Amino acid sequence: MGYTAREEWQQHYADGKNFRQLGDAERAVFAEHTPVPEGGRRALDVGCGTGELAAYLASLGYAVDAVDFAGSAIARARGEHAEVEGVRWLQLDIEHDDPAELHQEGYDLISLRLMYPFLRDRSRVLHALGERLRPGGALVVITPVVEHTPEERRDIALDEDEIGLLTAGWKQAVRLEADELTVLVLRGSCHRDTAAVERRQPPTGHAVTGALAVLTDEAGRVLLGRSRRGMWELPGGKTSGPEDFAAAAVRELGEETGLTALASDAYVVTMLVDDSHGVPRLTAVVRITAWSGTLTNQEPKLFDRWEWHDLHAFSCVGDVFTPAAQALDAIWPGVIPDLPPVHAYPLAVDQPPVPGEPAEAARLRHEMAETVIDGGWAPSEQVQEALRTVPRHRFAPEVNLATAYDGGDRAVITRRDETGAAISSVSAAWLQADMIESLHLQSGAIVFEAGSGGYNAELIAHVAGSEGRVVTVDIDPWVVRRARRFLTEAGSGRVTVVEADAALGAPAHLVPRGGFDGSVITYNCWDIAPAWREQLAEGGRLVLPLEIGGYTRAITLERHGQVLHARHFTYCGFVRDQGQQAGTVPVAGLLDGELTLRFENGIAAPTAGLEEALRGPRHELATGVTMGAGAYFGSLQLYAATTLPTFCQLAAHQDEGVTGVVKDRDTPAILGDGSLAYLMHVQTRYGERPEDKEWEWFVHAFGEQGPQLAEQLAATVRAWDRHVRADDNSKHADPILTIHPAGTPDDLLPDGDVLDKEHCRLVFRWPGRNGHLPGPARHNHAIAAATGEA
């Protein structure tokens, strides 16, 4: 009964035919190895047929989702088990349909009874189901095996190699027998680390040249063959005679899989140079953008089968032939981690975009867009349509769809440095939308972006329209290569990617006459590069995450002459700058590493006598300013950082230290001569409900000048409470901010608090403050400075 098509199974059940009945031995396996604890659990029965196993699992106490792709099977199951409670009968093709109806919280038990051999993409489906298991859950596969199956029906049975592949990567795999059926109870991770491996037999000849075909299906999945050598391989092989690499890839594709493609739809995008067993090897990576035919295994002596694989699962598929792994990385950099080195030579080819995505991606993209829109971050139709249209998951192929389309505050980290710190990411969708909205782009706009990833640039290109253009610049060659590839695969063709230090701006030949209509910086900036202002059109907007005293705000700036005027502030966080613009933060350690002072504004104050002060008595001062659960105090941080001389951040690195600061947290602080004061919030009211809880701001201080510093810091908190804070967290007052070129004389600056950086002078005018601090206040000004409104 080697059915492969849905129609065959539909007719099978419609004709009243059944399947092998659930035996007592099978029932005993479930009762013994997957018992339901008190309180119940949730199960998923895949390929449920007429529902016998689903009904039995319900009798054990499971709440069951029973799925089958044959509507006739589901109809019979509903009728034959109408009295059974606790089962949802769902018509669903587990291989191809959008799994929206399945429980997003996952399952404690997933069963595949007598259906695993019928799956076409076994590895992909098993991985996807494994990701739906809750901690401690089990995936149970019941299957015939070759040993107990007549030769004429062995196409529905598994051999030992297949069972080994099925169980690889699970932390626990228990094998049982039930009435000559094999039962596999799998627990733990379904992930098997990917490894690039070579064939055992060395190649013959003095050198090897070959071509590998990379193609995707209508869902964007990649075709790989499970070879008899025990590894996954791409279609391809050696060139023959005078044929070119594209022709070789097309020929090998047909010979191995039965699929056909035109040479005009085959693009050689990269050449790989390495060696195999000491023999030089030259491999052409050929991207097939269109194909036809029915997938079949044309060379069963060389391959067990061919399957379509999700990109995000490439990190855990097991052994992959080294050139195939390198070829996949050439098309989608980053999908397979820790590959051996290879010399890669990308070619400049005019490859068209390649369509293809699962229905689930479209649904999740629209859900993400609606979340962002409902949050008020995307009021314009242009940005809304960009969020609904641009395929975010194709710019983060190493993560699953749910992660790529998270509508909350999650960024997708795409690159880390040697310490594990994130250095490249796809930012949270709401923040990208907010920054693009702040640009106020018109149709046909030409935009500069610093920091490339591809997705944000493509969003901007979509908003700018068919006549618009984006120039995106990044200093990291890997990020540039990745952005170029993803934009080639899924972009509009209106984004130009440049490898350079973005602090220098765009190359002159790419800067439009009159300057860019808008510019956006997508990494934390300590300073504002002169080129960003100089290359911006008069009246154009620059949106960037600017670090102010260690706190980051995405600030929208509008150019008027040589001055940038702030129009909007958004609380945010980004990866750090890697170029010449990156700021160095002076740091001072205290008490053998228990505490750290960070001078985020770039100028360190003397710390002599502080350690002695910290060993003395602690002065505490209540501010009288309280807040409830969920209160926003980011504006207090920014207010303190821009109005207090000798401002710094105090961080603790152990619990229950002398300061009372929570380990690995930081808090605003100011310094005097051998003295320190810092801000704390202390819970003063408790309760079961959030609205019953309350905290009050306190100032703690050490040293002879501690009481004076405490009064200064407390006055700052009270001034913030009177003039900046609002009951509505979204209504806190922002400062009036203007940014002037470095070297602008004090008498040409407006009144306000001045923060100097290398390339610019920032002037903040907060409500209730009329004072003026000319440049960064030095240590000996700390006590003499105004403590309240000037």
From TrEMBL:
Superkingdom, taxonomy of origin: Bacteria
Listed GO biological process terms: methylation
Localization, UniProt: Cytoplasm
Top EC class of this enzyme: transferase
Nudix hydrolase domain ranges (all copies): 204-332
Keyword Cell inner membrane: no
Keywords of this entry: Cytoplasm, Hydrolase, Methyltransferase, S-adenosyl-L-methionine, Transferase
GO MF annotation terms: methyltransferase activity
InterPro entries: Methyltran_FxLD, Methyltransf_12, NUDIX_hydrolase-like_dom_sf, NUDIX_hydrolase_CS, NUDIX_hydrolase_dom, PCMT, SAM-dependent_MTases_sf
EC number, as in UniProt: 2.1.1.77
Family per record: Belongs to the methyltransferase superfamily. L-isoaspartyl/D-aspartyl protein methyltransferase family.
Designated name of the protein: Protein-L-isoaspartate O-methyltransferase
Source species of the chain: Streptomyces musisoli
Gene for this chain: fxlM
